[in-house]
Amino acid sequence: MDKKPVIYFLCTGNSCRSQMAEGWAKHFGRDKVEVYSAGIETHGLNPRAVAVMQEAGVDISQQTSDLIDPILLHRADYVITLCGDANDRCPVTPPQVKRLHWGLEDPAKATGTEEQILNKFREVRDVIRDRIKVFLGEIGVK
Q: What is d(CA 138, CA 109) in angstroms, rounded to the nearest whole number?
């Protein structure tokens, strides 16, 4: 592979889903991919997302909540939106960028006991993990 594929995960606040996706893609793609995440807004890194990823052996604690970077958006090979809001509000991507949408439930909106909320985060984390594995295989990253 001459050029590493650039993958850009987008969500509304870049605090949970896109952060977990970035963590999983870096974990599974290692040095074979360039991975970033951003949001329409920045809401900071959600501590529950950090905790459930740590449970799975992936440290995202040093990742940052960033706004969409237009230069990176145009440099990306793949832009993957993880929520309807980001899909609707994401800036137009150039024709060479493959745009995908994985509509996922927002775990930050979960209610109930702390354990019920964490279970929702775990559920979303595992869905993202499985999608990342399939996606990386589809683009030839083993």
A: 31
Task: Give 1's pLDDT tier (boundaries 50, 70, 90).
Answer: very low
Domain ranges of the chain: 6-136
Alpha-helical segments (H) within 4-142: 17-29, 47-55, 70-75, 84-89, 114-138
pTM above 0.85, yes or no: yes
Look up the CATH architecture of domain 6-136: 3-Layer(aba) Sandwich (3.40)
Active-site residue, 11 included: yes
Annotated active-site residue in 40, 83, 132, 136: 83
Active site residue 16: no
Catalytic residue among 11, 68, 79, 86: 11
